[in-house]
């Protein structure tokens, strides 16, 4: 039986369409020859997510988004997606919504957990989480900086307003005068510094001589100190201390009236006897000067001595 050219063309077209569908679904992670499981998840906001978006596991496309609808209470978005039935993971796994690129658009990535928990089955709901995108991170970093910048600008405005209020005409004149006085003071300090430099330059030789003399004096003091250390200074101090101690003991005995010196200083009778003896000696010397013949005379004829007559004290 001869096949016509039209039938051949039709078969080639149909085969091409089938091959195209198989290849397209293979590239999208689905297969027409294999059954798939449908799962559900929910998010508060799915901006950028579209039906037909790929669903991946560890970067491998294993499914796609089938539908996006509101929940019954209109507070959440219910997303249904398909996965190949050969992908098995536990119920502790999560469906993460993330930004797929810098120009927008979002995708779903399954964060699988392979533990002893029960496996997900067709029709189960997977917990959905949202990964902050680049825009969100930038906004989180910029928001505090923006607040600080606004606060700084506000403080700067307040500062400038205060400065403008303070620096009126009189304040500006006073500030100008202060700056001028400060400039004059700096010039005076500079002149004094130049004068001091000139003085030091002229007196450098004298200063060097003075420092040399100080060094010599310091060396002499060191030698004197060494000599004192090498001398028997300790023994001399001990001897001096012993002498001072003996003298203290002697003075204490005199104060108490002990010993000859103590009795001499403390006995009033001895003092009176000494005073009386001194007075009598003085009277004898005076009488000897006034009447020497009573004590010294020569007699060739044996003249009798006159008896001694006591001299009465003149009142």
Structure description:
The protein has helices at residues 5-27, 134-166, 169-202, 204-230, 233-256, 259-266, 268-290; strands at residues 36-43, 54-57, 60-70, 77-84, 94-99, 106-111, 127-130. The protein is of the alpha/beta class and 315 residues long. The chain folds into five domains: 1-33; 35-131; 134-166; 168-231; 235-291, no CATH class. The protein has a seven-stranded mixed beta sheet with strand order 1-4-3-2-6-5-7, with no helix packed on it. The chain is elongated, with a radius of gyration of 65 Å. The termini are far apart. The mean pLDDT is 79.
Q: What is the strand arrangement across the widest sheet?
A: 1-4-3-2-6-5-7
Element pattern in H and E: HEEEEEEEHHHHHH
Label the structural class: alpha/beta
Number of domains: 5
Question: Can you describe this structure in just a few lines?
Answer:
By secondary structure, this protein is an alpha/beta fold.
Annotate the secondary structure layout.
Blueprint: H1 5-27, E1 36-43, E2 54-57, E3 60-70, E4 77-84, E5 94-99, E6 106-111, E7 127-130, H2 134-166, H3 169-202, H4 204-230, H5 233-256, H6 259-266, H7 268-290
Parallel strand pairs: 2-6, 5-7
Antiparallel strand pairs: 1-4, 2-3, 3-4, 5-6
